[in-house]
Specification:
Elements lengths: L10 H11 L4 H4 L10 H12 L7 H4 L5 E2 L1 H11 L3 H8 E3 L7 E3 L8 E2 L4 E2 L7 H5 L2 E2 L9 E2 L4 H18 L10 H17 L1
Antiparallel strand pairs: 1-3, 2-3, 4-5, 6-7
Helix pairs in contact: 1-3, 1-8, 1-9, 3-8, 3-9, 5-6
The structure holds iron/sulfur cluster (2 copies).
One iron/sulfur cluster (SF4) binds next to loops.
Length: 198
């Protein structure tokens, strides 16, 4: 199993780093040609992931919302379950009725991989990207706003905590040098750790 990085959980520290990270765009900070570029909205998303605590209510895996799959998600599931790709496609996926060419999980009421007694995911290490980024959905690298799922109590709580922490951080005198490029780079690196943890 891949070792997950330790995440900072203190909302105040996260909010301070977020305000610093958001003060200059990636293009001015990461000059490496192969460095991934993220938007300010992405950094807000990363901060949400750091604060988020799942309440294990099971809503996301049991209430029948479509669960999107990328081709690489199905390939990873097939590999993890040690079955051929075409069998995984047939057994677990359907074409989204509203979006041609987009795949969803076939069984979602509840998801076939939800363990009702343990209240957890049976394929946690190979779960699809849409499950990994839930409940702060969105396309990384775009300015699309974070879509918070109101049926997820953990996300509602996270937004409240982050909003309060940002307000407190804005009032902090140390924010005066928040747009120092070295500090911004360090803040962006701090938040990017969240992506490795999901
Ligand atoms: S794959 Fe796992 S995390 Fe995703 S919906 Fe199914 S049970 Fe939930
Ligand atoms: S809906 Fe939110 S709080 Fe409930 S299990 Fe899913 S991620 Fe956790």
């Amino acid at each position: 199993m891949t070792e997950m990085p330790e995440l900072e959980r203190d909302p105040r520290k996260i909010a301070l780093q977020l305000l610093s990270a958001a003060s200059l765009p990636d293009g001015q900070i990461f000059t490496e040609l192969d460095a991934p570029r993220y938007t300010t909205v992405d950094y807000y998303r990363m901060a949400c992931h750091m604060i988020f605590a799942c309440q294990r209510c099971g809503n996301c895996c049991t209430t029948g919302d479509p669960i999107r799959l990328r081709p690489e998600d199905v390939a990873a599931i097939a590999k993890g379950l040690k079955i051929p790709l075409n069998k995984a496609l047939k057994k677990y996926t359907i074409t989204d009725p509203k979006k041609a060419g987009v795949l969803d999980f076939k069984h979602i009421l509840p998801c076939k991989f939800y363990d009702l007694s343990a209240k957890g995911c049976k394929i946690y290490d190979i779960r699809p990207w849409s499950c990994r980024i839930f409940p702060f959905l969105g396309i990384y690298g775009s300015e699309d706003q974070i879509k918070v799922n109101e049926s997820c109590p953990g996300s509602v709580e996270t937004m409240k905590i982050l909003k309060e922490a940002i307000e407190a951080a804005r009032a902090d005198a140390k924010m005066s040098d928040a747009d120092d490029p070295a500090k911004v780079r360090s803040a962006k690196a701090f938040l990017r750790v969240a992506l490795d943890s999901i």
